Amino acid sequence: MNRMLLLATALWKRRATLVLSLIAFPALVLMYGLNKPPMYEAVQTISLNPENTQSDVLQDTSNEDYQKILERKLKSETLLEDALESVGTVMAGTTNEETTKAVAQLRRNVELSSAGPNVIEITLSHEDRSSILRQLEAIVTLFIDDIMAPERFAKDELTNHLENQVRELTEQKADTDAKIGGLKSDLRRADEKEANAIERRIAALEFQSQTLTMQINLAKNQYEQVLNETQQTLFNPIIKAEGSPVILTPTPRLSQQLYFLLVGLILSVVFTAVMVALDILFDRSLRYDDEIRKELGLRILGRMPNLGDVHFDKGRMSTMPKINI
C-alpha cells in the first residue's frame, strides 16, 4: 500500500511533466512522420515444387538457414542492379555512386519471408505507387531465373553431352558397318585360308556394331528422358510466381501517421516512467512509521501536525493546514 501511495505521489508531483510529454512526444514524432514520404508496400507470393529439384535449399523453406541463402540471392548486387536497369532507374548515364546508392536503398526495402510449407513471399517498400508493382515484378522474375539457372544449365549441359554422344556413336557405327560391308566383298574373292581370317574380323566388327547400337539406344533413351524432364519443368516448374503482386497499403499516409503516433505515445510513457523512477530512487524523505523505525532505529513517541501557514489577526492566531503531496 505504501508503495502505491509513493507511486501516486511521484506521479502527482510529475503531473506537469506527464501531461507535457503526452503532448510533446507524439507531436514531435508526428511532425517528423509528416515530413517523410508515405511508403507503399507490395507483396508477391511464390510457390515451390521441391519434388522436381534436388536442391536442399528448396526442400524446406521454413529452415532459417535456407531462408538466409535465398535472401542473399534476392539481395545480391547483380540481381538488384539488373532489376533497376529493367525499370529504368539505372541507365547508361548513371554514375557508379548513384547506382550503388540505389542498389543499397533497394536492398533495404526488399524482404523475403516464409508464408507456409513450400511458399515464400517477397515484400517491397517504395515511395512511388505507380512503379512499385513493376519493380517488384522485375525483382521476382530475376530471382526465379536465378534460382532455376543451375537446374536449367545442368539439363542443358547433359542434353548437349548426350546429343554429342549419340552423334559420335552413330558415326562410329556407320564406319564399322562400312568396314563390315567391305570385308564381306573381300570374302567372296578370298581363298579358304584368307576367308577364315576375314570371317573372324567380320564377327569382331559385328559384335562391335551391336555394342555401338546398344550404346546409341541407351544414349537416345537418356536424351529423351532429359527432354521429358525439361518439358515437365516447363509445365510444372520448380519455382513460380502465384498471380500478380498486390499492394498491401493502399493508404500508407494514414497507416504511417498511426504508426508514428503510437511511437510517440510509447516514448512519452517511457520518459515519464524513467522520470518517476528517478524521483522515487533519489527521494530520501521519511513518510511512514516503518521507514522511520528502519532508518533511525527509534520508537515513535508522538506526531505533530503540520500547521501550515500561521496568521495573526488582532492577537488571534489562525492556521491553514498545508498538505505536502
Topology:
Elements: H1 2-13, H2 15-34, E1 40-48, H3 64-74, H4 77-86, H5 96-109, E2 110-116, E3 119-126, H6 129-189, H7 192-235, E4 239-247, H8 252-281, H9 289-296, E5 309-313, E6 316-320
Antiparallel strand pairs: 1-3, 1-4, 2-3, 5-6
Helix pairs in contact: 2-8, 4-5, 4-6, 6-7
Task: Provide key terms for this protein.
single chain; 325 residues; Alpha-Beta Plaits; two-stranded antiparallel sheet
CATH topology of the largest domain: Alpha-Beta Plaits
Overall geometry comes to elongated
Main sheet summary: 4 strands, antiparallel
Cα-atom radius of gyration:
42 Å
Number of domains: 3
- Overall mean pLDDT: 78
Structural class: alpha+beta
Helix content: 55-70%
CATH architecture of the largest domain: 2-Layer Sandwich
Order of strands across the main sheet: 2-3-1-4
Instruction: Spell the H/E element sequence.
Output: HHEHHHEEHHEHHEE
Q: Could you tell me how far the N terminus lies from the C terminus, measured between alpha carbons in angstroms?
A: 16 Å
**Number of helices in the DSSP assignment:** 9
Description:
The protein is an alpha+beta fold. Helix content is 65%, strand content 13%. Strand 2 and strand 3 form a beta hairpin. The two termini are 16 Å apart.
Q: Quick gist of this model?
A:
This protein has 325 residues and is an alpha+beta fold. Helices cover 65% and strands 13% of the residues.
